[in-house]
Design a protein that fits this description.
Blueprint lengths: L19 E5 L4 H11 L3 E6 L12 E4 L5 H7 L4 E4 L5 H11 L10 H4 L1 H10 L7 E4 L2 H11 L3 E5 L9 E3 L2 H12 L12 E5 L4 E10 L2 E15 L2 E10 L9 H12 L5 E10 L2 E8 L7 H8 E2 L2 H9 L12 E2 L2 E6 L6 E5 L3 H5 L4 E6 L6 E2 L10 E7 L2 H16 L5 E2 L1
Helix pairs in contact: 1-10, 6-7
């Protein structure tokens, strides 16, 4: 969405009082950014790109892009900064920031950070290695391209995020059915899907790289390494472990690759969340987003690394902040996110394993996506994960032991009661 407002000069003066910061779609990682803004004594305005903002945070105000008078309300608030909270808010945030003379990425290149097709074009034009991929807008094109390189094939919406409608297809029939599902519907943000992205299946370890760009320079805060397990033929997420960028277990090529990708897609300020596969030929991009890690990831990184990840995101947008971070990134505790697994679909009756989870030495908290009385799916991917667990401990071996106990409890049928 692009909203035109009367432009203001970047060096305009603000009225006296606390800084006022707008967070566009303050959900997912943006929730934690908005909460920190309020904790620092700033005013925080929730800006919704669509729908209604629902939160337990005490926002200064809430604006909705579809409302009459939205442009006037944006000007009236005299913002010091605008920050994208979720993937859905990137376009609107970059457009508003430009029109208001605030720090932000160039909205003329937004599609390099939102459309996976345009993103790939920008990365390839910069001479950066990519897996084979193609944009298709018909089922026939999907089948023809897949046949040309062979199965398995990864298929996903062109501009959604996370694991929304992402599927690894092993056969023509699977690809046909999933392409039809995407092309006939809408993504998680309610947008009509005009095309799908097909990618060759990359073999290797999957990583996330989270950082903050300040004055055009990327500071990497944390690198997450996924581990998957095979459940009845489906490779599903077991956990993600977080490491500082200089950790000896990490291939340094990941960092240099992500720095190059960040520059190629025009990310000049704020958070970046990069997903990359480390293959036998080196790092290959899955996708990059100009927002913070989704779910509870942003909060986990902030709690277990120093300096503060969330404060660095906020500071990157504030007037007068022009220099990149200089402090070395340090890890305070070993940290992981574990993914709960549901072995069968049905209705969630209760979660008898909740007290067991809370007793684990590394347990910090649980983010539950399915509540008792609601339908629960058999876990086959991130979208069907019923809950996330934040785990942290000075000894990473304690976290690993706790995850093994979690899996044993699930397999014994003592974690979830499903009917």
């Amino acid at each position: 969405m692009t909203v035109q407002t009367a432009s203001r000069s970047p060096d305009r003066s603000h009225s006296d009082g606390p800084l006022k910061i707008g967070v566009v779609d303050p959900s997912s990682g943006g929730y934690f950014i908005a909460r920190r803004i309020l904790e620092r004594g700033f005013e925080c305005v929730a800006i919704s790109s669509s729908g209604v903002t629902s939160s337990d945070l005490n926002f200064t105000a809430a604006l909705h892009a579809g409302d009459t008078g939205f442009e006037t309300d944006v000007l009236r608030h005299d913002f010091h900064a605008l920050i994208p909270g979720a993937e859905s808010g990137v376009r609107l945030c970059e457009s508003l920031a430009k029109n208001l003379g605030l720090k932000g990425n160039d909205p003329t290149t937004t599609e390099q950070r939102r459309s996976k097709t345009v993103m790939a074009q920008a990365v390839r034009a910069a001479g950066i290695a990519l897996c084979r991929q193609a944009r298709c807008n018909t089922i026939a094109d999907c089948l023809a391209w897949a046949d040309s390189i062979g199965f398995p094939i990864v298929i996903k919406p062109e501009a959604s995020s996370g694991s929304d409608l992402v599927k690894v297809c092993q056969t023509q029939d699977e690809l046909l059915a999933h392409a039809a599902l995407i092309l006939s519907g809408r993504d998680k943000y309610g947008q009509n899907t005009q095309g799908v992205l097909l990618q060759e299946f990359m073999v290797g370890d999957e990583y996330t790289v989270d950082g903050v760009v300040t004055d055009g320079k990327l500071t990497i805060f944390a690198v997450g390494r996924y581990r998957k397990i095979n459940r009845d033929g489906s490779m599903i997420y077991d956990k993600i472990d977080f490491f500082p960028p200089n950790h000896p277990s990490l291939d340094p090529r990941l960092m240099t690759y992500c720095e190059a990708v960040t520059h190629a897609v025009g990310a000049r300020v704020g958070p970046v969340h990069i997903e990359v596969m480390l293959t036998e030929d080196g790092p290959l991009l899955v996708e990059i987003a100009a927002r913070a890690h989704g779910g509870i990831g942003t909060s986990v990184i902030d709690a277990n690394f120093r300096p503060s990840f969330i404060d660095a995101i906020i500071d990157a947008y504030l007037p007068g902040e022009t220099s990149a971070l200089s402090a070395a990134i340090e890890q305070k505790k070993a940290a992981s996110i574990a993914f709960l697994i549901s072995d069968r679909p049905g209705t969630l009756k209760s979660m008898p394993g909740a007290s067991f989870l809370a007793s684990l030495p590394s347990f910090v908290r649980m983010k539950q996506f399915v509540q008792p009385g609601e339908d629960i799916a058999r876990t086959i991917d991130l979208a069907t994960c019923p809950a996330l667990l934040e785990l942290a401990h000075p000894d990473p071996a304690v976290i690993e032991a706790d995850i093994l106990r979690i899996r044993a409890t699930e397999q014994a049928g003592k974690m979830l009661e499903v009917e």
